[in-house]
């Protein structure tokens, strides 16, 4: 079993240790502090799952996991994309580069992309540009990825506004 935590605002080492102790004290941990305030944390039960961190970028962690009892392996890339389109281009290029080295191994990419694929993933007046959507679509196409279907609410983020300023988006995906 493994757990991924995104969008953390815990940056003091004492707070990190306390959080780890209170959550899953006996599990293994990897925290990414290349972004502000520790953007991505991974934690896993090392009795059940082996995790090798292969690459860490400012918007992702790329690792190989191994289920010890089932003897299966999978590449997993955890995303916490930048809010801004310009730095997010670095993420798209990093995913393209990662995809060139993957052969005959399952690859799961998941997390908060801070981007939508098309207008159907937005409810309300959004400032998403067609350029941002086209860049995300291009990355999906170039890497050969297939967005997984989902059930339930189609939106994963809300701006906490009401009335005409209310905005819903699907930013998180697998």
**CATH topology (level 3) name:** Deoxyribonuclease I, Chain A
Proportion of helical residues: 10-25%
Q: Report the order of strands and helices.
A: EHEEEEEHEEHEEE
- Cα gyration radius (Å): 17 Å
Name the strands of the widest sheet in spatial order.
4-5-6-7-11
Question: What is the correct CATH architecture?
Answer: 4-Layer Sandwich
Number of helices: 3
Report the mean per-residue pLDDT as an integer: 79
Shape: globular
- Which parts are unreliable, with pLDDT below 50 for 5 consecutive residues or more? none
Structural class category: alpha+beta
For the secondary structure, the number of strands is: 11
Number of domains: 1
For this structure, what is the CATH homologous superfamily?
Endonuclease/exonuclease/phosphatase
Q: Can you offer a commentary on this structure?
A:
With 174 residues, the chain is α+β, with helices and mostly antiparallel strands. The chain has a single domain (2-146), classed as Deoxyribonuclease I, Chain A, CATH 3.60.10. It is built from three helices and eleven strands; from the N terminus they run βαβββββαββαβββ. It has helices spanning 13-24, 85-100, 130-143, and strands spanning 2-6, 28-32, 40-44, 49-57, 60-67, 72-80, 107-112, 122-123, 157-158, 168-169, 172-173. The strands form three sheets. It has a five-stranded mixed β-sheet, with no helix packed on it. A three-stranded antiparallel β-sheet has the order 1-3-2, with no helix packed on it. Strands 8-10-9 form a three-stranded antiparallel β-sheet, with no helix packed on it. Helix 2 (85-100) packs parallel to helix 3 (130-143). The longest helix is centred in the middle third of the chain and has 16 residues, at 85-100. The model has no long low-confidence stretch (mean pLDDT 79).
């Amino acid at each position: 079993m493994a757990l991924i935590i995104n969008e953390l605002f815990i940056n003091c080492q004492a707070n990190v240790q306390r959080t780890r102790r209170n959550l899953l004290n006996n599990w293994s941990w990897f925290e990414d502090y290349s972004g502000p305030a520790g953007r991505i944390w991974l934690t896993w039960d090392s009795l059940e799952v082996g995790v090798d961190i292969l690459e860490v970028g400012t918007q992702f962690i790329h690792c190989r996991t191994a289920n010890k009892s089932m003897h299966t392996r999978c590449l997993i890339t955890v995303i916490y994309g930048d809010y801004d389109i310009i730095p997010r281009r670095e993420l798209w290029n990093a995913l393209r580069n990662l995809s060139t080295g993957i052969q005959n191994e399952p690859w799961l990419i998941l997390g908060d992309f801070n981007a939508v694929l098309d207008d159907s993933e937005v409810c309300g007046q959004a400032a998403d540009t067609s350029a941002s959507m086209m860049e995300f679509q291009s990355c999906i196409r170039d890497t050969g990825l297939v967005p997984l279907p989902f059930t339930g609410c189609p939106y994963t983020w809300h701006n906490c506004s009401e009335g005409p300023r209310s905005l819903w988006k699907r930013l998180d995906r697998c």
